[in-house]
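This entry is listed below:
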Amino acid sequence: MHLERSSDISNGEATTVGSISENGISHSFDDRSLESFIDSVRSAQTEYDIFKLLKGICAEHNFERFLVTRQPRDGSFTTRIGEFVVLTNWRPELLHKCIESDFFSKFDVYPQLAESAVPVTRDWREEIQTVTDDTSQRQMAMLIENGHCGIAYIPCRTHSMVGGVSYAGERGKCSHTEMQRIAYRSSHLFARLEEVRETSLENNPLSAREIECLKALASGQTQVEVGHSLSLSEHTVSYHVASACRKLGAKNTINAIAIVFEKGWLR
């Protein structure tokens, strides 16, 4: 790793400016850009504003995907995707595979990340060489095939929500300096996300029943099972799902689930 720093004094204030260069990747930083980012977080009014800022972190650190998750504050743990995913830009196809394979309950690394008290960075291409469990190998291979090779996981907590923000891309592991920068920004975004969630819900065109149906389907239930759990007929479930797809302009159920994940409406 190569680190360069310089100081700029303007208007009587000293500003640290620098760049990090490692593994052929250069990351610039300065106090002013960080202050500007925090100002953007404070002015965010909707979950889509948070979405765009998360995309910005991805672009700055050579990630492509992010996933914001939450867990119950009582210490229990859930792997039902419809219950713990708050906001994401994962590809619909990968979300579909995760739902079909019950990915998060079978991938034993996920609970380790979710329960971590400190930021974690991993490279599945390295770990797949040493893991001996067949299920973990298949799950890592699926992530790698979909471009989720190197990841960074940032545990986050507010007065009402416990969870984390993860980033994934075809890059390798992050340096300590990168993780520090990512963690600081992510924790602010996570806290602001909780504050703007109700505002975002006001723009949600879906009915409560449509959200319930999509949430249950996102957790891996069939339409028959959804009907039983909600005391509805399969025909009624199909009607609510079709109505949700029409309102969202989604081409199918998986696309609808991906849209509401992206909007932060599936809760």
